[in-house]
Design brief:
There is one protein chain. The protein is 63% helix and 10% strand. The chain is α+β, with helices and mostly antiparallel strands and 231 residues long. It has two domains: 39 residues; 175 residues, Glutaredoxin (3-Layer(aba) Sandwich). A six-stranded mixed sheet has the order 1-2-4-3-5-6. Helix 3 packs antiparallel against helix 4 and helix 3 crosses helix 7. The longest helix is centred in the first third of the chain and has 51 residues.
Length: 231
């Protein structure tokens, strides 16, 4: 090979290397930017949720006055797409229009049926509950809209979400890995099974399972229960 050919070969390799390095730098920058944006969105969700839920009396997974005449429960799974929709279409309206006025108390019931991340997310929410942070924590988990056991609610991510909220990461991890959180989730699931619940979301009003064909059905049942309580 001539010296000129060798120079061209070295020049070509050098150019390819520089191109590869440039692409790697761009990819790293994009990943850092995406992570920064995700963290910013999470922080905004946490701040907004903390301010919103402060207006309500809460105890565990229950929100609203314990003296409210109507008790609405939702058996749900964090990975359930319809539960994500129900949060926007039913729960938000329920809190703003009924719970805020003292008419209804609302309780989330864990019913993880869509795989291992559903169970982990429910356990993590229980641990947040023990640390008096269930409501903003569930808001953060719901905002992720994780489905299909793709890692959104992995053990490490759930612990990271807790740390983002300012919770003690070590205590949270110990709770998540402990038997107590799993027992609580199992008890909630078993309770739902005993009631004949087969899927999520399922709403229960004053102990009666609501058969829904549309989101509006739940509000009709609540209004009738309120009318009956006022007699």
């Amino acid at each position: 090979m001539s010296s000129k050919s060798k120079k061209k070969s070295k020049s070509g390799k050098s150019g390819s290397l520089q191109w590869a390095v440039g692409v790697a730098v761009v990819l790293v920058a994009l990943l850092i930017g995406a992570q920064w944006w995700a963290n910013r969105q999470d922080n905004e969700t946490i701040t907004r949720a903390a301010a919103y839920y402060e207006q309500f009396p809460t105890q565990g997974t229950r929100i609203g006055s314990p003296n409210a005449p109507v008790h609405v429960e939702e058996y749900f799974d964090f990975q359930c797409p319809h539960c994500h929709t129900a949060k926007d279409q039913v729960v938000k309206r329920l809190l703003d229009e009924y719970v805020a006025e003292g008419k209804v108390q609302f309780t989330y019931r864990f019913f993880p049926i869509l795989g291992p991340e559903s169970v982990l997310a429910a356990q993590a929410a229980y641990c947040a509950m023990e640390m008096n942070a269930f409501w903003p924590y569930q808001e953060l988990l719901m905002s992720k809209k994780g489905t299909g056991n793709r890692g959104t609610y992995s053990r490490d991510n759930l612990i990271d979400y807790a740390r983002q909220m300012g919770l003690d990461g070590t205590a949270f991890r110990d709770c998540l890995d402990g038997e107590r959180s799993l027992q609580h989730v199992r008890q909630a699931y078993d309770q739902g099974v005993r009631m004949g619940i087969l899927g999520t979301p399922t709403f229960v009003v004053n102990g009666q399972v609501v058969n829904m064909t549309s989101w509006e059905d739940i509000f009709g049942v609540i209004d009738r229960a309120l009318a009956a309580a006022a007699r």
